[in-house]
Design goal:
By secondary structure, the chain is an alpha/beta fold. It is built from 13 helices and twelve strands. Strand 8, helix 10 and strand 9 form a beta-alpha-beta unit. Helix 6 crosses helix 8 and helix 7 packs across helix 8. The two termini are about 25 Å apart. The relative contact order is 0.14.
Length: about 350
């Protein structure tokens, strides 16, 4: 792989950005498809399809990931990362007993039995197959790469989303009305186990370099929290069942981040900005008519609250340039890392220069 800056220098840049001392946005660009003379491994890296296939050993999985990295170049604020999305969105559900199925290259989680909420009691099981596989894969990655590649925290999932996996979204919506105390009980059990899994997997990540599927680097404990389930909730329900858990988990971390996914979550932004330990909002408008809408007011609200902001990239940095024009600086903003083919290296360098 081609990475001229090195991890230490890159981490220093991110830390200046976190501290508000970097008077520019972070723009990570990864180029793929560089020619390599290495012989392809027996199994190419398939991300979630590789992790979800127990026949693929941790050594084979990392062989494939290593070969893929060897064709990459990291420009701007990008860095070599073993991104935790390979385990699927919400691997804690599997740690707690769901089955894993791979469909079209993606991992999906299915409960063995759909139990009534009152019968759900979540406890820790250290001999869980997927937890042990996760540790084995991360251990192999750490042994192979040392501190040359950042091993990210897996996509653990959101607490309410994990519960929705076991209950089904429609059933959980009814549970909020029918047995609210039971919802709070079970979510608290999942939350405490989520914290335990985070602590347990942390030693398998790269010491001093924290990241996750968002690709944001930090020297401190950080994580991109989320709650897709709350898209269907009103603000009262969000306050009652979701906000306190996010508050506690942000306190558990050192740098809490939140994945604000879609227009249905915009009403929760004022409550999110009251969470003291929440340092960053990642805004994803979703598909359809909202994808190309100008979200400048939302960006301004986040930045003026003193939080950092992650935005999706657009072809010409239109949103980013508007923010820079308004604030007179691009500080506290990071673009979601874009991936470009190696033959567009000139275009990538031009984007970085502008």
């Amino acid at each position: 792989m081609i990475f001229e800056k090195g991890l230490k220098k890159t981490l220093d840049t991110y830390e200046k950005w976190w501290a508000g001392e970097l008077d520019r946005p972070l723009i990570p660009i990864t180029l793929t498809g560089h020619m390599t003379e290495r012989k392809a491994p027996r199994r190419l890296y398939g991300g979630q399809s590789s992790f979800g296939n127990p026949d693929i050993t941790p050594e084979e999985l990392i062989d494939g990931a290593d070969f893929e990295l060897s064709s990459m170049e990291f420009l701007g604020d990008a860095f070599p990362i073993f991104n935790g999305i390979y385990s699927g969105p919400g691997i804690v559900a599997a740690f707690l007993g769901t089955d894993i199925k791979v469909d079209n290259g993606n991992i999906w989680f299915y409960p063995k039995d759909e139990l009534p909420l009152e019968q759900l009691h979540f406890t820790y099981h250290g001999d869980n197959f997927w937890l042990k596989r996760m540790k084995a894969v991360m251990s192999e990655a750490k042994s192979r790469w040392g501190d040359s590649v950042v091993i990210g925290m897996p996509d653990l999932g959101g607490v309410a989303d994990i519960l929705a996996t076991f209950r089904g979204t429609q059933n959980l919506m009814l549970d909020l009305y029918d047995t609210p105390d039971e919802v709070v009980r079970v979510m608290n059990e999942i939350k405490l186990l989520w914290h335990r899994y985070y602590d347990e997997l942390l030693p398998f990540t790269t010491p001093g370099f924290h990241t996750d599927w968002s690709g944001i680097l930090s020297s401190k404990r950080s994580y991109m929290l989320q709650c897709d389930f709350c898209y269907m909730l009103g603000t009262d329900m969000f306050d009652r069942f979701i906000a306190d858990e996010l508050d506690e988990t942000c306190s558990f971390l050192e740098r809490g981040c939140y994945h604000l996914d879609g227009i249905g979550q915009v009403p929760f932004l004022p409550r999110l900005l009251k969470i003291k330990g929440l340092n960053l909002i990642q805004w994803v408008p979703g598909d359809g008519p909202y994808a190309d809408q100008d979200w400048f007011e939302l960006y301004r609200t986040v930045l003026e609250s003193g939080r950092h902001l992650q935005i999706l990239y657009d072809p010409n940095h239109t949103s980013l340039n508007k923010l820079i024009d308004y604030f007179g600086t691009g500080k506290n903003i990071v673009e979601y890392g874009r991936v470009m083919p190696a033959h567009e290296r000139g275009k990538a360098l031009k984007l970085l220069a502008n």
